[in-house]
Every structure is written in C-alpha cells, then in structure tokens.
Give the backbone structure.
Amino acid sequence: MCLAVPVKVIAINDELATVEVRGVTREASLMLLPEAKVGDYVLVHAGFAMQIVTENDVRETNELWAEMNGAERTVGAIEALNEDERRTIERLRAGK
Amino acid sequence: METNETHKVSDRALAGKLVEEIDRLTRPLGRKVRYMEVCGTHTVSIFRAGLRQLLPPQIELVSGPGCPVCVTPDSYMDKAIAYAKELDTIIATFGDMLKVPGSESSLSEAMAAGADIRVVYSPLDSLKIAKENPNKTVIFLAVGFETTAPTAAAAVIAAKRAGLKNLFMLSAQKLIPPAMKLLLDDERTNVDGFLLPGHVAVVTGSDAFLFLARDYHKPGVVAGFEAVEILRAIYRLAQMTTAGEARVENEYDKVVSREGNGAAQRAMYDVYEAVDTPWRGLGDIPASGLRMRDEWQSFDIERVRPIEVNVKPNKAKSLCRCGEVLKGQIVPQECPLFAKACVPEHAIGPCMVSVEGVCAAHYKYGGGKFKYGA
Amino acid sequence: MAHDVIEMAHGAGGRMGGELMREVIFPAIGNDILAEMHDGAHVNVSGNIAMTTDSYVVKPIFFRGGSIGRLAVCGTVNDLAMTGAMARYLTLALILEEGFPIDELRRVLADVRKAADEADVKIVTGDTKVVGRGAGDGIYINTAGVGDIVDGADIAPKNIRAGMDIIVSGYLGDHAATIMAARHGISLPESIKTDAAPLKSLVASMLATSKNIAVMRDPTRGGVAAVLNELAGQAGVGMLIDEDKLPVREEVRGVCDLLGFDPLNLANEGKLIAIVKREDTEKILAAMRNHPLGEHATVIGTTTKEGAGEVGLRTPLGSIRMVEMPMGGLVPRIC
C-alpha cells in the first residue's frame, strides 16, 4: 500500500505545500517533512510529503551502464554495513 | 549503444542490458533463483511492466505479504462494518478497502445498505469530514505499513491540535520486518533474496532491513517502483547470489537513506506502540502491529466505544490458501479456489480483492506469462 | 417564475408543472414538435433507423467544459453514431430532487440546447418527475434517441477480423480526469476540460470516406480497456495495443499518478474507437484529422489471431501484458 509520486513543491503556506506534477497541482502536508523548501522535489504518499527526492538519475544510469560494460562499480555502493561496522564508524565519527 | 553525461541511456536499452546481465550471472547456477518482493506496489509494477516475461526463466519472482489490505483479518473488516452500520457514524477509508470481504459482507455492501462511507485520498481528509460533521462520529480506517502509519499518526496529532473530539481511528497498521522474520523462520520458505519495499524504507531507512543479512544471511535490495528500478535491484541481487554474498543494498537512494525519515518515525511512535497482531493467513506475529498509546486512547474508537463482533466461520474460506501464497510457498494457481470460486468480482480470499493482491495480479495479468505469439 | 427551487408539486402535473414547462423548459429547449404538447411526438422517419436510450447520473453536476445536460445529449447521440446512425430526435426525461435550484435547472437545460444544436437534433418529447429531498442527487436525466442508419454502413463486432487497425479519435481520459480532479482536490490548468461532444458529424465524415469500418465504440465508463475487452470477447479475436502510442495528455497522466488510475480505464465522452480494415486506415485517419473532433486521431494497435478474446499491451520495455476488464467504480488508490 505504498503508492507515492515525486512532485515539485511550488508554494508553502505554513504546514501545507502546493505541489505540482505534470502540470496539475494539489495540496500536500509538510507535517512529516518540515525541511522541504519551494523548488524541492518531494515524494508524496496519502497527502503527505514523505521525503525529498535527490535527482541523480542520468549520472547513475550512465555509471550503471558503464559498470555493466566492464567498468568498476560506482553506483548503488551505499551498502548497508553490519551493526558492528556501523558502531565502529559512529564511534570514529564521534571522535572516540 | 554509446552514452555520455548528457544523453541518458533509454529505459528499453537499459532494461535489455540488465536482463542480459541477470541471465549471465544466474544461468551458471543451474537452478531456479527465487526472489521475493515484499511490497504489493512492487507486485503490481512487475505485472504491469510485464517483467516476468522479460526475465530469464531461471529467475522466479514470488510475492510476499506486502499488501496491507490482504493481510487485514476478517475481524477487522467485521468491526469496520459494524461501526459503519451505526447511525451517527461516518467511515472514512482509502478506496482500496471498499471491496475487502469480512466474514459476512464488505464495506461496499454496507454502503449500498445506507451506511455513510467516504473514500478519502489522505487521512487529513477525514479531519475535514469531522470538522464539517460535528454531530457525527468520524472513524478513519487506519490500515497500512510503515509508509502509511505516520500519515495516520500525523492526522491524529493534527486533530488533537485542532481540538477535534469526533475523529477516531480504527487501527490495523502493520510493520514489515517482523513479518519477514516470520517467513524466514519458516523452513518451507524458499527464497534467495528480497526486493525490499522502497516506500516503507523511505520511513524506516534501509538499516531497518540489516537483520536480513546479519541474522539470515539473505541479500536484500531496496528498490524503486519503475520497471527499470526493479530490474536494477534484481541485478544487484543476482550479483550477490552468484557471489554467495548477503548484504543489504540500496538501489533507491534518491529517496531512501539509512536512517529514514525521523519526523515520520517520531510521529508514528509518538502515537503508536508496537503490539502483537494477527495477519490474515499468517496468524499472530509478535510486535508486528501498531496500537495507539494510552495518551492517545481518546482517539481510539475501540477503546472509546468498544464493539463486539462474531466472526462467522466460512467453509469456502477454509479452502483458501492465501497464507501459503503470502509466504511464497505456493503460486495462486495451486489454490483450489483460484479463478474458480474465487475471482475479483466475488473474492473469497483477500489476495484476490486488492488491486495489489497476488492472486488478483495473477488473475488479471494472466500470471504474467502473456505471450501473445510474441 | 415564482419559485426558486423545485417543489414536489412541480412534478405532479397541474398548475406548477405547467408553469415549469412554460417558463423554464420550453424557452430553453423548445421547437415546433415539442410545442405540440402531445402525449407523444409525431416525427417523420423512413428506412432503417436505430434507437437507443441512456440515463445520466453524475457528480458534480457541473464541471469544467460541461454538465449533466451536455452529457445527456452527447451520450445518446454518440451511442447512435457508434451504430452508424445519425441521430435526429431525442426524448428528455428529468428526475429532479425537491429543493433543486431552478437556476441550476436553467443552466443544465441551456447545455442540453447547446449540445442539441451542435448535434443537429431536436428534443421532441419529455417528462419531468420530482422525488423527495434526499431521494436523488439534485438531477438525473434520461434521454432516448432515434436516428437514420447511414446507407451501406455495417457496423457490428462480428465484422472484426484479425489484422485490422485500432484507431482512437483523440486524447484519452480528459473527461474522467476533469471529474476526478474536481472530486479529489486537484487543480488542472484551464486547457483540461471534459471532452463531451457529439460525434455525429465526425462519424458522418468517416463513413463518407470508407465503409471498411468494422466497428466503432465510444469508450465511456470503463474507458478503452472496457471497450477493447468487450469487442475482443464478442468478436473472438485478440487485440494488441502499444503503450507508447496511447494519446494521453501530460496533465491527465498527472491526475493518474496522483490518484493511482490507469488512463486506459478513464471515461471519455467525446472520443471513439474504430476498428478498420488496414487498406483504408490512412484514408480514414485523414478524414478524421480533418475534423475538429478527430485532429489527434491515431492508430494504437491491431487485432490479432493470437490471444483470442484478450487484450494485450506492449509496454515501453517491449514486454506484453494483459489489459484487464476494469472492475468498475474508479476510487483513488494509495496502494
């Protein structure tokens, strides 16, 4: 049950954004995404903006294409780490 | 095909290449490779894009318990219908719920009999209905997974702020990871990896699925919903299967982060707490459901105005194999009711009711094997 | 008129009924035949005729580009046109809810008149009934129509064979998208409105060009998906359409994205699907594109021997999936 669409924020009035997709507009609540700004692309589900969309499709697609043709893997590299590794990194980040 | 930074490879070319790579990676295994998509929206995308037809025969896609309408038990529908029949009540619901059968009837039958049931697009619409009808009890049917639960929570928070006293929730939201653990603890469940639900992960973050690799040594890839995005995730799964690796990767990082959406998580856990809950076909699963915390009980219709229902046992339903379908243990065609007694117009099992139900998808899209002489 | 809203007495014959007719209905849609005020209309027809009837219930009653009045005329005129008949006379039955504003009735009737003039048909007889408050949605309309069948036209599903072209007359889904947007708080640009239009003259020019039109249908409720499934079932052939060739406006796709609809399931009120012999496809397309209602006519697919009774859709990735018969009742999904 998770139909969600990327839309563009074109106006914000308090907690309510006007969002636009393919030339049509409607309202979406920013209660769950207060950091959204006018001009951002956001993912909307059931009337709520849920996340800011970072658009990197063209670059990623080209890198994937290159990878499939023999280049080093550069995309999708956000491999989730296991808990231990994560804790280690967090410790390092915290300077401990 | 040549490509550079300014020209995007066409989706068709990219899909073709991905399928080729998936085949190259998995063919040497000499066996079927089974991946489960956990999200019903993925199920629909896979059928609508005809992906089963494009993928090599050794790749089998099975559908897991990711359709919230499908896993909502009879008792919930019966309660919703019982509330709907009360004279001072307006039920606000997502359209997806209308045709789901309870043990005796459905919301759309109750609607035909005069109940005031309104289809809404957002939980916020139910606030508007409550404001416009101060003398009515407005009940929002809060179903859904982690993607949707924060929106219902936000509606409750907004209702409290607005001082609304006539808006209530009938809650049956569910959490995905506990259901996946249940599947993986069942040795009959036979899958090589998981297409992870992208929009659930928007809220939970991809880290919520780390248990897959850590505890079960199964790979999982967070996937978007475009055909090509799904193929990309299958390609990553195939790489790991071939290498015998199990990691949780994220192929939907344009919206999914490791931590997820903090504001949404806070809203959800401010209003709700995890409790054991029954899933249709799967039984009770520990800490897999959401119940309103005591501080919010004045918005919980089951506590404000409890209602008793007698769930009628049903003979045809006892033949329904939805549970095994949901676990990926059988395909819908193996159920004795499929396409015979159970069709979308007169569904017995919920997997046939919902547009994203596994059985409905198999029924409507011909099992995805529509060859058409092509 | 002494009253602002419809009262029960307006439907009970007698003085108030007469007043409604004289002051509201006749001035809007009157003509020489209706003026006779008989229990029935006497009209001249000869040769082969076609008849049809349809009832109209729609919410909201007024929407961008039209109203229930426009639909009631266009729908019946188009049903006749789809059988190869040119509508000449219509009946008009109004079922009004007590309390319905007379001003709104005037607006609906003005739309009836405008559409009837566009279609060159006359409203020759009618009826008015009033139901109690709460028993209706303001206004329901039934129209029936009679029309002459164009000489030599043989329009029937049994004429469909494999290897024919499937044509649509223009952009799909404008009507349903307009209605759904109004219902669910979506704003559309001015350019998107209902496509409700009488297709009579478009069909006349198509049939004047070629008699090699096996069948025509207007994809109203259930949209293109419903029509093609019906025809495939009736004719026992397969249909294969191309997703990339479907004419759908960007904004209509936007409405579909937001509400989880498939453009193939959206209702149209001024579009037709024609299945034609391939040798005449170009000729028929040219005739259609010369007509304002067929400017964007295009071939979306073909009929096939394979997949008899089924409709397939070639996706942009090159795979083929089935197009199912819609269940009916468009509700926004979030799944």
Summary: Residues 11 and 84 of chain A are 43 Å apart (CA to CA). Chain A touches chain C at residues 1-3, 5, 7, 21-27, 44-46 (CB under 8 Å). The mean pLDDT of chain A is 82. The longest helix of chain A spans residues 57-68.
